[in-house]
Amino acid sequence: MVNFRFVHAADLHLDSPLIGLAKKSEDCAARLDDASRRAFDNLIALAIEEDCRLIVIAGDIFDGQWRDYRTGLFFVDRMRRLRQASIRVIIIAGNHDAENRFAGRLEYSDNVRLLSQRNPESVVIEELGVVVHGQSFPQRDVVDNIASEYPSPVPGRFNIGLLHTACGGSEGHASYAPCTVEQLVNHGYQYWALGHVHTRQELSKVPYIVYPGNLQGRSVRETGPKGATLVEVADGGVTRIEHRALDVVRWTVEDVTLTGMETREALLPAVRESIERAFSGCDGRALAMRLCLVGATLLHAELAATAPSVREEIETLAAGIASDIWIEKVEVRTSPAAARADVDPTVAGRLRQAVERLAADPWLAERLEALLAEIKIKLPAGAQSDTLFHVLRTEVPERARTLALATIDRGQG
Length: 413
Hints:
The protein contains 11 helices and 15 strands. It has 3 domains: 4-245, Purple Acid Phosphatase, chain A, domain 2 (4-Layer Sandwich), CATH 3.60.21.10; 249-338, no CATH class; 341-413, no CATH class. The protein starts with a strand and ends with a helix. The radius of gyration is 25 Å and the shape is elongated. By secondary structure, the chain is α/β, with parallel strands linked by helices. Helix 6 crosses helix 8. Helices cover 34% and strands 24% of the residues.
């Protein structure tokens, strides 16, 4: 049997914006606008450099409707580049691709095969001894177990299952094309190339059932190395798989512990150390980071009351370290170093107690939930972000509580 290498990628989300950074500055927006394209170019370079014969893409090439048709033209152009390198490409449409009414009309070069939306389809690549089985999403919401209809493995061939799915259920991802690991294992394929979940996962090693994760992190919810999976095949089986980082902007969340810190002068050196450590681990990539100031400190009241100026100081510090570092957000999550013994129990003490009681009152939480529900139904569909409402439901009340307590403490200082 033929020995060969192939690349398994998924969730390219071409031209999807990097959330939380575009409004920082025009320069930042310009440099980040094509991050997903540059990551895809890295994928193409990997396939060529590693002498791969095949690329399989497990859905969500696009991010819903395009801002303009150039997104589709870019992808078609890169497929031609792979044709020049004699690399076959087999793709399926995922839920975001199915939202795009133009994606199915693209005219690809003859090295590319987009699998059918109607039924599971098998593509035989004779020169490699490979059969790729898969099905594209016909619409965004596919709730059936489509993998149960995939063809049986072809004997004497290396069988790859290409599937966009929330296998076994995955927190933070809609349960599209649900299936189980046991089901995929028992199906008899030698490799399952999954997509939809943006975190790299190996659900099984015999056979390999793999999510490569997305190609480029798009927000602080998608931290760490992002890329694709390089697979080596020999004698009809997988001999090695390796995740290759292909992202051009690396997201990270870093805690800066301020426990015991007594002076404002000590803050920036601690922050600098955290930023430099994170940047050194990016291997030359740009860094987008969220910094969380944590710990019990005498600076708590001052930091909570002056959070905007703290953020500006840290952004200036980061810009001085390297031009490829962007601070997405600075969160002040510190707490008072100790209860104040000199607080007036008839004024500040009672105020603090009132704030704490109000924060813990279930009536307030119920009222907030009702108000948010009223607001959400009045918004257009594109503005009904679950992430936004999670922040409004959890983080905003906590910030209000922290600021109120900090104001009381400062008044007693």
